[in-house]
Amino acid sequence: MGACVARFRAIVINKGEGGQSTTLSDFDENDLMEGDVTFRVEWSAVNYKDGLAVTGKAPVVRRFPMIGGIDAAGTVETSNHPEWKAGDKVILNGWGCGETHLGGYGEKMRCKGDWLVPLPETITAREAMAIGTAGYTAMLAVLALESYGITPDQGPVVVTGASGGVGSVAVAILAKLGHEVIASTGRPQEEGYLKELGAAQVIARQELTGPVRPLGKERWGAGIDSVGSTTLANVLSMTRYGGGVAACGLAGGMDLPTSVAPFILRGIGLLGVDSVMCPQHLRRKAWRRLESDLDRRKLAKMTDEIGLADVIDAGRRILEGAVRGRLVVRIG
Asked: Residues of the chain with pLDDT > 70: what percent?
């Protein structure tokens, strides 16, 4: 009976002679990794990196067997950490979860208490995962632009990959903060959706995928880019003098075919945004700002819900660009 109680359902990634396989399986609680906090996972999310992990399209997973899921929200069951006690509501984003540490696509999780962030009072666990790493990254990108001195009066902000998770949340936050938002997307059918989130203008992805000039026509005062490669290079070349671009993704590739011209002739800043190993003080600042600066009604419009059994298919779809906005995963 004890062995049955200790088992729970999880999305488990294994690697054998035939390559990587991902299944919905039983997992033994005794095989959870070391940590001073164990919590019951209630909600998770599907991010682009999760898609890479569950499909094996990129070598995201570094340890096998692995429970996928870079995000988790739930309730503490046991804790030896001074900050957390049983019953506390917590959020976990990144820190190698779903890559080197067993992740959030399971009913139980154990980790270092230093990795956790308290669930804000006015945000539910489901809403926290509707935000997830994608939305938290979008907020970090907004904070990076603000730290660089970007204000609404400096001109529009372009958001690439705008129909995806990072892009959708970035559009909504920037619009609420008073910025004019130009949303770039490869899905023209989503124009209505993006304008509902707050975009003033929607442009085709193709406008940013052509040959890169050292300097293009100045079109925006700043940008948030989740695509990388040629798209980011074009965004930089079209940014106004003194502007800044926050780079937080590589869906289009890791290369950057640009020159030094935007940096030394227009004084543009390229601001790197990392959500995985981001220090605690910045994580907590981002979540406080998400509580105040993200319209929860817009968050609801961009969110769909799936069950744990649907995660593997969702991972394939997000890589195909077939997922709009955010996918929350109901655990258990």
From this structure: 98
User: Check: CATH 3.90.180.10 for 2-119+302-330?
Assistant: yes
Pairing of strands 71-79, 89-93: antiparallel
pLDDT digits (tens, 9 = 90+) for 156-167: 999 999 999 999
Residue whose tokens read 């289009």: 252
User: Please, is 17 exposed, middle or buried when counting C-beta atoms within 10 Å of its C-beta (0-12, 13-18, 19+)?
Assistant: exposed
Cβ proximity of 61 and 99 under 8 Å: yes
| pTM of the shown model | 0.94
Domain residue spans of the chain = 2-119+302-330, 132-272
Look up residue 127 and give its amino acid. Answer: E
13: amino acid identity, one letter: I
What is residue 145's predicted lDDT score, i.e. its pLDDT? 98
Token pair of 249 as six digits: 């993704």
Give the pLDDT confidence score for residue 17 in this predicted structure: 87
Residues 210-227 as b/e (b if ≥16 CB within 10 A, e otherwise) read: eebeebbeebbbbbbbbb
CATH superfamily of 132-272: NAD(P)-binding Rossmann-like Domain (3.40.50.720)
Q: Which two tokens stand for residue 191?
A: 């124009």
Measure the CA–CA gap between 320 and 172, rounded to whole angstroms: 23
